[in-house]
Design brief:
Elements: H1 3-38, H2 50-60, H3 65-77, H4 81-99, H5 107-126, H6 133-156, H7 170-186, E1 191-192, E2 195-196, H8 197-232, H9 239-252, H10 258-275, H11 283-298, H12 301-311, H13 316-352, H14 367-370, H15 375-379, H16 386-399, H17 402-415, H18 419-466, H19 470-484, E3 489-496, E4 503-508, H20 520-534, E5 538-546, E6 552-559, E7 563-572, E8 582-590, E9 593-601, H21 606-624, H22 629-641, E10 650-658, E11 663-669, E12 674-678, E13 681-685, E14 702-706, E15 712-716, H23 727-742, H24 748-760, E16 769-778, H25 788-796
Antiparallel strand pairs: 1-2, 3-4, 4-6, 5-6, 7-16, 8-9, 9-10, 10-11, 11-14, 12-13, 12-15, 15-16
């Protein structure tokens, strides 16, 4: 045998030897557990824990079943030979139930059923008939406890491959305490001279729990074990208070270290020794808890650290490692999905995003005309205007005016001898045109939605790659900057780290001199630091004075906006009726973005009002779901164009005001011009897109304008200007009145009222009319106002 072969053989032998030792160690633990569970007697009559333990080990760790069987039978032998026979019969009955091929009962039901059948037969034979009521009660308790213990053990004992990967949840920890309490009950007879094994283990576990989890874990261990042991031993219920208070005092002493835990765990027993003479607090008890405390003191600290990491893994380094893994894993998956979205987007845009062929102004002859004997008269050299009539018919059908459609159809009937077939072909052609338009816009809507999905995924991946634990690192950075500035900050919490919507709470010392206010440090020193870190302005949201646990103030900071909008609305219906075809909505999508919606339905009826309101409602829903405005406009057009039986449509004038950067974004679908008044200058935002619901709409382009403080934005429906007077003259007059009033010191409500009164004194409003007036101003905090005049006066004085 070569040296290499000998080395490999030695390694294999070592591995086999280590596996045997590990199996022997685990088997010994299962043997002791089964031995003590078999001796655990509840209510001084029921022995319900052996069969559940056998069932769990038999199903999950079959190689250790022999250790459990031997330990259980030996433990029952100390209770009597009859108990050994009962346990053997119960295990055999359980195996028969589990192996029955025609039904598969849950494990807990099979265990309780096996215990019930064997106990009923055994007690019936022993009492030669129906057993006494008390015996029946004990049998019922044993069956119920066997069912409950099986459920607890199913939670505690996981599969062997999950031993080192599964986490210790609160449910699993509670199940472990229940099983350990049952074992302690079976250890009551293990007393050597002045040493009691169950009291020693109870004291050791409470001290160890206090070292691992402080007050909560130690108190739970003491309360659970004390309660379960007290229920099992009816004369032992007074020890529940002792065990619970022991856990509480041991946890409170954890702040002083391991000696604090040991001393705190002994004090309650000393107190109850003088308080309650009925408790079994004798020399055996005190010797056992003293030994338990000494053993706890000599245990290596690494044991408690390992258990703490297993039970409470939510520490910063664990979170950091887990977050890194999660970020890499999710980013990998998202990138794959992003490639698919990009492929679909390019596929739709490049291959199918070709605009539909424009309808020719001159209509070609219908098939009926080509086979008609009067073809030359209608379409030849003697053209009698049939092509113009058909073009007018298509146009009137698009506009939806019934009177005009009827007039054109009468003219066609007058000139055509086959008008019925002609109308059928025209309807077919119109239907084909509408289907093509809907098909085109459906494809474009899908393409735009894919683009939005791609943008959302790009943003998500970018945010995940930016900073793994953003709150922790940002808080550390801010605290360090405050320390460098010698600012006493007791606590700092970053509630939100989203750009433009950040929220930070800082606990500071109150003002120490009379002339200083509580917000002075925050205003003069902290706000510049936050601006330097995040590169965006902040403002003080609120200041709260607190006296608990000591006197301090809590200052809340949030991202500030540079501009604010004040608005007013002027709305009236035609002839002062209840129904107006105009609808509007002004709202904030978030503190830095203000949305404006104005829609005008066709006509002044209830249907027109319903159409415009529906359009406003759908647009708000799209914006609330973070849909791109262009995608939302095309989506609404596609949805509304599907309902063409009534030929209803509505205009949509949509604008977004960016209050942080001072930008105006405008999208118009048939809307009127938007005016921006800046002193004597007037900026107009216009669009040629058709109203929502028209099949001819192909694109809604966004217009961007830069806003300044003092700008006045005017938006209106088409009912503002009369159809009788000259349109340009009315527009010039309206803007002239607006410019005269915009620079005054009146409120915006008075300004809009004055503008409309002045305009209506010259031009009458004949239709539904809505005018929106918005005034953009700078946001200036009150503490930042500086009055140089007062300063110079005080300086000179």
């Amino acid at each position: 045998m070569t040296s290499v072969e000998w080395y490999e053989t030695a390694n294999v032998d070592d591995q086999k030897s280590g596996a045997r030792k590990r199996q022997l160690l685990i088997g010994s633990l299962f043997f002791l557990t089964s031995f003590f569970l078999a001796q655990s007697v509840v209510f001084e009559a029921a022995v319900p824990f052996s069969v559940p333990f056998w069932a769990i080990i038999r199903s999950k760790y079959k190689e250790y079943a022999k250790f459990v069987l031997i330990g259980g039978l030996i433990g029952c032998y100390f209770l009597g030979f009859g108990q050994v026979l009962i346990l053997a019969l119960q295990i055999g009955m359980y195996e028969c139930i589990q192996r029955f091929r025609y039904w598969q009962l849950p494990q807990s039901i099979a265990v309780s059923l096996a215990v019930l059948i064997v106990q009923v037969l055994w007690q019936g034979v022993m009492h030669q008939g129906l057993p006494p009521v008390l015996v029946q009660f004990y049998v019922g308790c044993e069956v119920a406890l066997a069912l409950i213990m099986t459920l607890f053990m199913q939670v505690l004992f996981v599969n062997s491959y999950e031993w080192f990967t599964s986490h210790w949840t609160y449910e699993r920890l509670g199940s472990a305490l229940v099983v350990f309490a049952a074992m302690l009950t079976g250890m009551q007879a293990v007393v050597i001279s002045y040493f009691s094994l169950p009291i020693f283990l109870l004291q050791l576990l409470i001290c160890f729990g206090a070292s691992v989890g402080s007050v909560p874990l130690a108190t739970v261990i003491g309360a659970v074990l004390g309660a379960l042991i007290g229920v099992a031993k009816l004369s032992f219920t007074g020890m529940l208070s002792v065990a619970t208070l022991t856990g509480l005092c041991a946890g409170m002493g954890a702040r002083a270290g391991r000696f604090g835990v040991a001393i705190g765990s002994i004090l309650p027993s000393v107190f109850f020794l003088f308080y309650d003479a009925t408790l079994p607090l004798d020399s055996v008890y005190f010797t056992s808890i003293a030994i338990g405390s000494l053993v706890f003191l000599v245990l290596p600290k690494s044991y408690s650290d390992k258990v703490r990491n297993k039970l409470f893994p939510q520490r910063e380094e664990v979170l950091l490692a887990r977050q890194h893994w999660l970020t890499e894993h999710v980013t990998f998956k998202l990138e794959h999905f992003q490639h698919f979205v990009h492929f679909m987007k390019e596929l739709v845009f490049e291959r199918f995003m070709t605009a539909p062929v424009a309808v020719k102004e001159e209509v070609a002859p219908m098939n009926t005309c080509l086979s008609c004997f009067r073809h030359d008269r209608c379409w030849g050299a003697q053209n009698n205007g049939m092509d113009k009539l058909m073009t007018d018919w298509f146009h009137m059908k698009g506009v939806g005016k019934e009177s005009s459609i009827h007039r054109v159809e009468e003219q066609i009937r007058y000139k055509c001898v086959k008008s019925t077939k002609i109308f059928e072909e025209l309807e077919t052609e119109l239907y084909r045109e509408r289907i093509n338009g809907q098909y085109f816009h459906g494809k474009k809507m899908i393409a735009l939605q894919l683009r939005d999905m791609s943008n959302h995924l790009n943003q998500l991946i970018a945010e995940m790659k930016e900073e793994t634990i953003s709150f922790v690192s940002v808080e550390k950075d801010i605290i360090q900057r405050l320390k460098d500035a010698h600012i006493e900050c007791f606590q700092l919490d970053v509630l939100s780290n989203k750009a433009g919507a950040r929220k930070i709470v800082c606990a500071l010392a109150p003002a120490r001199v009379n002339w200083e206010e509580d917000t002075t440090v925050a205003e003069r020193m902290i706000l510049p630091i936050l601006y330097d870190i995040f590169e965006e302005p902040f403002e003080i949201d609120k200041v709260v004075a607190c006296d608990v646990p000591f006197r301090h103030i809590q200052v809340s900071f949030r991202s500030a906006i540079s501009f604010e909008v004040e608005y007013d609305i002027y709305s009236m219906s035609k002839d002062a009726t209840l129904y107006s075809g105009d609808s509007h909505a002004l709202f904030q999508l978030h503190p830095g973005l203000f949305a404006i919606l104005l829609s005008d339905g066709m006509g002044q009826s209830k249907e027109a009002q319903h159409e415009s309101r529906k359009l406003i409602h759908l647009m708000r829903e799209c914006l609330n779901f973070n849909m791109n405005p262009e995608t939302a406009m095309h989506t609404l057009h596609y949805v509304m164009s599907l309902k063409q039986q009534d030929d209803m449509y509505a205009t949509l004038d949509f604008a977004l005001v960016d209050l942080q950067h001072g930008d105006l974004w405008s999208w118009k679908a048939g809307g009127m011009s938007t005016y921006i008044l800046r002193g004597k200058e007037v900026l107009k935002v216009e669009s040629n897109a058709a109203p929502v619901g028209f099949l001819s709409i192909s694109a809604v382009e966004a217009e961007k304008r830069k806003l300044k403080a003092g700008d006045v934005i005017l938006m209106h429906s088409d009912g503002l200007f009369s159809s009788i007077a000259d349109w340009d003259e009315q527009e010039e007059a309206f803007l002239a009145f607006a410019q005269q009033v915009a620079s005054t010191n009146k409120t915006i409500q008075d300004k809009l009222t004055t503008i409309m009164q002045s305009f209506q004194s010259y031009y009458a409003i004949e239709d539904d009319c809505t005018v929106l007036m918005l005034e953009v101003t700078h946001v200036v905090p009150t503490w930042a106002v500086f009055k140089p005049a007062q300063y110079s006066m005080s300086k000179s004085s």
